[in-house]
Amino acid sequence: MTDIGYWGVPLAILGGAIRVSTPFIFVSIGECITERSGRINLGLEGTLVFGAMSGYAVAYHTDSAWAGTLAAAFAGLLFGLLHGWICKFPKVNDIAIGIALMIFGSGLAFFFGKPYVQPVAPDLPAIPLGFWSDIPQLQAALNVNVLFLVGIALAFAASWMLKNTRIGLTIRVAGDSADAARALGIDVNRVRLWSTGVGGALAGIGGAYLSLYYPGSWNEGISSGQGLMAVALVIFARWSPVNCLYASLLFGGAGALGPALQSVGISQGYYLFYAAPYVLTLGLLVATSSAGGSATRAITAAPGELSITK
Amino acid sequence: MKVPPQDNRIPDRALAVSTHGMTMRFANFYALRDASITIAAGSFHVLLGENGAGKSTLVKCMMGFYRPTSGQISIDGQEVDIPDPRAAHELGLGMVYQHFTLVPSLTAAENLVISRADAPARIDWKTEREGLAAFMEKMPFKVPLGIPVGRLAAGEKQKLELLKQLYLGRRFLILDEPTSVLTPAEADELLGMVRGLTEAGELTCLMISHKFREVTAFADEVSVLRRGEHVGGGKVSDLSTSEMAAMMIGDKELVRPAARLPFIGKPVLEMAGAKAPDRSGLKTIEIDGLAVKSGEVVGIAGVSGNGQMELMELLTGQRPLEKGAIRVKGAAYRASREEARRFNVRYLPEEPLKNACAPKMTVAENIYFRDFDFLGGKTQFWLDGRRMKQEAGRLVGEYKVKTASLNAPIASLSGGNVQRAVLAREFTGAVDLLVIANPCFGLDFSAVAEIRARIMAARNAGAAVLLISEDLDEILELSDRILVMSDGHIAYETPAEGADIGEIGRHMAGHH
C-alpha cells in the first residue's frame, strides 16, 4: 500500500461520503416524498432492516444481487403501503404507527434472517472510477456503486417531479392543505398511501445496499439507526430531495472522519470524531434555523399537514 | 395561447340555477326546510340571512358537499344530480369560500394549474406561464403569480380565489362573503367586476352577504333565509334595506351602540419607537408615538397586510419587540399574564378560536382562563370546578353563548358564539385597556351590533380601547380618533368627528 500520509483523511472522507451515504440518500428521498404528502413514516428504520434481510436472502437464493434489490424494494413497498393503509383510518397517529412498524420490520427481519447470517450472497457491482490513478487509496475511494449514481439521479428527478408534474403538485397539495386538496377533488388518502409506498420501496433499496454492498453482509446490527437518522435528515434538508442528497453526502463524509483518523495513526480521542456526523448536523441545524433571527417565523418549507409542524 | 379547455357540457354563457323544495335535516334539526330559490341566468343574486339561517347549508347542497334530505336542483331548466363537488364543477358550478382553499406553499401559478381538471401530467411551465399571462391580461386586477400564496395578503388571496374560478371557466359562481377581507375600494372593484361579467351574460352569481351596501349597489335580486326557511326576496330595486333587515331578523330587537359619553382621561397605552420584523421577516414594523387614553376608542384602519396583525401580536406578546417600548399606565409592559392582570389589560384578537382559545378544551374552561388560578387578589393552587361551572354558566347566559353544554369543546361552537364566549371572558371584571382586532369578522349583523355595543359600553366605563380593524365602517362607527396604518407604520391621524373619508382612503392605499 502506498503511504500517502495525511492525504488519507480527505480521501477517506470522500470514499465515506460515496459509500456510507447511499442508504441515507435512498431513505431520505423516500421519506421526503412521504412527508411532502403530509405523513411521517418513522417505520423506515424497520423497512431498511427488512429490505436488507429480504434483499440478501433473495440475492442468495437467485444468485443475483439485482433480483435481491428488486425484492427489497417490493418488500419496502408493502411496508409503506401497510403504513399508508393503517393511517387512513380516523384518529390513527402516523408517528405511533411508524414506531410500531419500525419494531415490527426489525423483528420480522431478525426472525426470517437467522438462516442468512452465515451464507454469502453476491455483491452489487461497483464501477471503478479510480482506474486512471495508481494510488490504491484513491482507487478504493472512487469505487462507486451503481446505486449511488442512481441515488443522485433520483434526487434531481424527485425535485423536478415535485415542481413540474401533475403528480408532484398533487403530492404537495395533499401535504400542505388537506382541505384544499379535497376541494380540488384529490383523494388525499390515496395520494398519501402511494407516497408512503414509494418511500418504503426506496428505503427497501437502501437496505439492500447495506447487505449487498457495504458493509455487504446480513446481520442484525446492520442498520444501527440509519433509517431514523435519514428521517431526521429530511427535516435538516428542509423537505427538498436535492438537499437530502447533499445532507446524506455530508453525513456520510463526516461519518468516515473517525475511522480515517484512526487509520492514519491518531489514537488519542479519535472516538470523539465518531460523533462528528451528529455534531455537524446539530450545528448546521441550529445555524440554519436561527438565521432568520425571529422566533415567530415558522419553518417555511415544512408541509402544512405534517403532524409535527401542526 | 393556452386556455383551459371547456368541458363539453358547460355552455359558453351564464347558467340559470334553481332549487325546488330543498330540505336538509340533521337528526331532528332542520338546517334547511323546503327552500325553493330561482336564480336567473346572468343575474347577481344575493342570499341574505343571519348566522345559522341555512345559507351555507343551501349552497353546500348546491355544490354537492351535502346530499339534501329531499329537493331537487335544476340547471337551465333541466333537473340534475350533484352527488359530489366534482359533479358540480363539471356542470360549471363553482364556489369561492369564506376560508381560503388555496394551497399556501404553492405559488399562485401552481395553484391555478393544479386546480384544472385537465392539468397535464408533465407541466411545461413556459407555455403555462404564457397562458396565465394572457389570461391575466383580460382580468381587471393583478395578483403576483410567482410567490407562494401563503405570503400574499388576505385581499390578494381572495382575488386569486375569484380568478381561479374564472380561470376554470365556471359559469355559475357562489361567493361566500367574499368581501369580508377586503377594503371598501377593493370590494367595490371585485364586485364591480363580477357585476360586469353578469351583465355581459358570461356569469351568474349567487353571493352570501351581510352588507346591505353591497346588496343595494351591486345585486339584482335577493332571497332571504331565516331559520332554514325561505322567507322572502325579490328585486333589490323594489326593496328597502329596512325591509330586507326585517325579513332577515324577524321581530327581534337589535342592540344599538350605546351613546358616546364625552370622557377623556389619562393615557393608558403608549408605544414609543417600537420596532419589530414583520411576518415575512423582510420588512419592519415601526410604531412611534401611539397613545390611547382612558375613555377613548382609537381605531387603526388599514388594508390587510400592512402590519396591523404584527401590531396586535406585539401587544399580545406573541411577537418579540426588537427595539423601543410598550408602556401601560407608565410602566414597561411585556404582556405577561402577571402584568395583564395587574394593569387590567384585556384582548379580543382576530380569529378568536386560534388566538384566544384552546380549541379542544371545554367552553367552561375557556371562559375560566383568566381566573382559574386567581381569586380575590390571591393565587390559588387547586382548580375550583364548582366556581368554574357557576361563573361560566352565568357568563354563557349573560352573553347568550349558544352551546350544547358547558362541557362541549369550544371548537364545536359557531364563529359568532366563540367570539361571544371570548367576549364574556375578556369583558368581565375591571377593564382598563382593551386591545381588539377585527372583532366582527364573519359575524352576522345582530351579533355585530351586540359586540359593538359592548365595546362602546367598555369605553364609556372608562376603558382605553385600541381597535384594529379592516372594516372601515366599524372604525368610523366606534372610534374617537382614527389612525391609518400603511406599510408597517402609522401614516395618518385624524379625529373621528369630521374625518375626511377620501383622505383616509388615500392613506390606506399608500398614496399621500
TrEMBL record, chain A:
It is found in: Cell membrane. The keyword Magnesium does not apply. One of its GO terms (cellular component) is plasma membrane. The chain crosses the membrane at residues 6-30, 42-59, 65-83, 95-113, 140-162, 191-212, 218-237, 244-264, 270-287. InterPro entries: ABC_transp_permease (IPR001851). Keywords: Cell membrane, Membrane, Transmembrane, Transmembrane helix. It is a multi-pass membrane protein. It comes from the Bacteria. One of its GO terms (molecular function) is transmembrane transporter activity. This is Nucleoside ABC transporter membrane protein. It comes from Neorhizobium alkalisoli. The lineage of its organism: Bacteria, Pseudomonadati, Pseudomonadota, Alphaproteobacteria, Hyphomicrobiales.
From TrEMBL, chain B:
Keywords: ATP-binding, Nucleotide-binding. Transmembrane segments: none annotated. It comes from the Bacteria. SUPFAM superfamilies: P-loop containing nucleoside triphosphate hydrolases. This is Nucleoside ABC transporter ATP-binding protein. Belongs to the ABC transporter superfamily. GO terms for molecular function: ATP binding; ATP hydrolysis activity. It comes from Neorhizobium alkalisoli.
